[in-house]
Amino acid sequence: MRKEYENNPVVKNAIELSLMIIKYAQQLENDRKSVVARQILKSGTSIEANIIEAQSAESKSDFIHKMKIADKEAHETWYWLYLCEQSEGYHFEESIKTKLDEVMRLLNAIIKTSKTNS
Fold first, then answer.
1. Looking at residue 84, which CATH number applies to its domain?
2. Which of 3, 16, 22, 81 is the most exposed place for a label (fewest CB within 10 A)?
3. What pLDDT digit, counting tens, does each position of 46-64 carry?
């Protein structure tokens, strides 16, 4: 991990989430659930990509915008995980949902605080 991210809780948690998502998507692929696997992989890893991009934002409003995109991707990921959880024949891991909830709480707090301070 890059040194400047070591003490950043949202980056650390989002990286952990992305790694969990990659493993989960591979499991879904192995189970021949390719369509859902691709969707979860795209949205789930996009959360971290947008958080990292926000770290070098050009302005406060750019930072907020990128964090909001990360939050939208998190909500999409929640949707796909929910479908897996509710669908018969789909493997589901509660730990991913728990980590996603943690990342979403952090994103919401960061966005709220950033809006207040701008």
1. 1.20.1440.60
2. 3
3. 999 999 999 999 999 999 9
